[in-house]
Amino acid sequence: MTPTAESVLTQLRKGTVDYCVLACLRSGPAYGLEIAERLGEGKVLFASGGTLYPLLSRLRQQGWVTTTLEPSPVGPPRRYYHLTDEGTDALQVFTRTWHPFAADVTTMVKENS
Predict the structure, then answer these.
(1) What is the pLDDT of residue 13?
(2) What's the mean pLDDT when you consider all of the chain?
């Protein structure tokens, strides 16, 4: 059976979206909708908002993010996510690993297409 573009994207997202969320928080705290908007800018990386909050909860359980409740200019308080030192370390390891991995994949795809 030939995979669909969506099934390939699903597999690629599984290993990378967590780290992309950490990268979003590198510049400072953000609440869920802000993170979703940043991830959705590229149109390929982020599939749906329904997957974001379980992912953020998992990152919090791993100790890679912490949360605070902040007043909102409209509506209820917002939960802001902050990158921890452990999250920064995880992102650095991912980044060091990602660059050569992505380069090798790109080389293989070009050579074999």
Answers:
(1) 79
(2) 89
Dihedral of CA atoms 47, 45, 7, 2 in degrees, nearest 10, equals 140
What DSSP assignment string belongs to 14-47?
HTTHHHHHHHHHTTS-EEHHHHHHHHHTTSSS--
The three-point CA angle 100-82-31 to 5° equals 105
pTM exceeds 0.70: yes
Alpha carbon distance 80, 47 (integer Å):
21
Residues belonging to the chain:
113
Q: What are phi and psi of 62, to 5 degrees?
A: -75, -10
- Tell me if residue 7 falls in helix, strand or coil: helix
Residue 66, SS3 per DSSP = strand
- Collect all residues with Cβ–Cβ distance below 8 Å to 38 and sequence separation of at least 6: 24, 30
- Torsion 98-100-105-107 (CA) sign: positive
Tokens describing residue 46: 């982020």
